[in-house]
Structure formats: structure tokens, C-alpha cells
Amino acid sequence: MEFYWNKKNNTIWLCVVVVLINYSCNSQKSKENYILATTQMIYDIVINLVDSTFQVEFLMGEGTDPHLYKFSQTDLRKLNQSTIIIANGLHLEGKMNFVLQKISKTKMVISIGDSLPKESLIKISDKIYDPHIWFDIELWKKVVKVVSNNLQKKYPSKKLIIRKNEISYINQLNDLQIFVQNEIRKIPPTQRVLITSHDAFRYFEKSWNFPVKALQGVSTTAEFGLKDIESLVDFINQRNIKAIFVETSLSSKGLEAVAKGLKSKGKTVNIIEGLYSDAMGTIGTAEGTYIGMYKSNISKIVQALK
Fold first, then answer.
1. Threshold 0.70, pTM exceeds
2. For residue 65, what are the contacts with CB-CB under 8 A and spacing of at least 6?
3. Of the CATH numbers 3.30.450.20, 3.40.30.10, 3.40.50.1980, 3.40.50.800, which one belongs to the domain with range 183-305?
4. What pLDDT does residue 192 have?
């Protein structure tokens, strides 16, 4: 398991975190069958695998940008009370990496991204890989198996039910792949370009041969400038793209500037809001599930570009 830490983070903040972790570890006991996921996407896998005897929670909910997430004392309590922590890894959790590394010394912390074959990941730079693996459904099925295998090892008495649920969920993901493939065919090849705020859709691009352009890089901590806006304006104008997409976890200001730049050139582009990238929808709604989130994105993309 690999965790990366940004050396620019404040040393005082680190000291405070260490004190909080040590206090929590000494004052709280783990709850039996309590699984904590860092993101909703991972949470959705777990609840599809386990039965009602498990307590499953997540830290980063609707509209949350995991790259910039700041955890609280409540989060630390959940982390320390959990039996297993399942994280995305690949540096998605940003500042939480240090905490996860600390806790992994005393309990099981599964970093799903770091459990995948490196050749299946998109490399960004030395030792850094794109963390947005959930947009490749085939890769996400491998993640399901990673989670399932670890849960079966941890809870051998639940092995049969977890394995049965794994097969059922994989079948649902197979159906999702067929749905997405059929929907994308409705978009003319020349219009198959996804314009977003930040570069969270490389795995979507790779798995569906659907080019993606974004203002920001893989992490939202990277800033964009006037040159980035102008470059995107020129690209959209040349390709005559119909729509650009605002993600639920990010501000629309950047893409609004792009739309304004296009307007100055006599070009109108539709701004489509509600695209899910680093977070899903509200729990209890279709968009609050992985499959529902993916279908919602596809429906928005197809309606805007076909």
C-alpha cells in the first residue's frame, strides 16, 4: 500500500493530527462489523456485498471534493471505531493520506487503487497515477473483487453471502456497460468530446474512446489561468462542440468564463450542470448509487451532444 504526502502541508497541522489520532486510538474501541469507506463510490460497493449485520458508513458525501477534503474530529472517531477502512488510494484522499498511513499500523486499511495492476492505471508522473478509476466500469469490476476478497478473508463466516452478492453486483455492472455502449452510439462521432472543469474523466475517455478536455488537471488543487481558458475556447470553437459540463463538486465559474469567451466569438455553447465526478448524488436517490450516478452522467452527455 502506498500513501503520498505533500511536504508543503503545515508542520503544526501535522502535530495536531498526531495528537488527535493518538487520543482517539487510546480512548475508543473498534466496533464489530463496522466498515468505513472514504468515498460514496466505495461505500456503494460494500453495501452491495455485505448483509444487514454490518454497519457501513462513508466520509466524503454529496458534492464533496476529495482532493481538498478536510477531516474533522468526528471523522477521526469513525476511523478509529471502524473494523476496516477502505480507501480509494492513488492520492485521491489528499490530506487524509497521512491519517490513513498512521491508522494502517493498527488496523486493516484497504487501498483499492494501490491493489490494482499498475498497467491497468493511467500514469500521470513518476509514482503518481490517475485516481478516478470508477469511470472505467471494467476496472471497477476488478475493484469489486478486491473489496470482496478482503471482506471474505476478514469475515470467513460471511464468505458465501459476500461471494453471492459479488456475482450479482458484477452482473449489474455488466448490464451497465451494455447500456452505456448503446447510449454513446447515439452521439455523432464528431460530437464525442466531453468538456469538463477538471480532468476526472480520463478513464471514461480510455474505456469508451470518448475524448475529454478540461480546464484543470487530475487534481483540483491545480489552478487554471487565462491561457487555459483561451485554449479551451479555441478548441470548442474549432470543433463546434454543443455543450460543456459542470461537475457537482466544483464551481461553475471556470466554464462560465469559457462560455463568455465563446460568446465573444459569436459562438453559443450550452452549460450543462449536474455531472458527477468526484462525488455521487444524495444517498437514497438513484444518483446516490454508482450505477445510477453513471447512468445519470451518460443521459446528460447524450442529451446534450447527440
1. yes
2. 220, 249, 250, 278, 279
3. 3.40.50.1980
4. 96
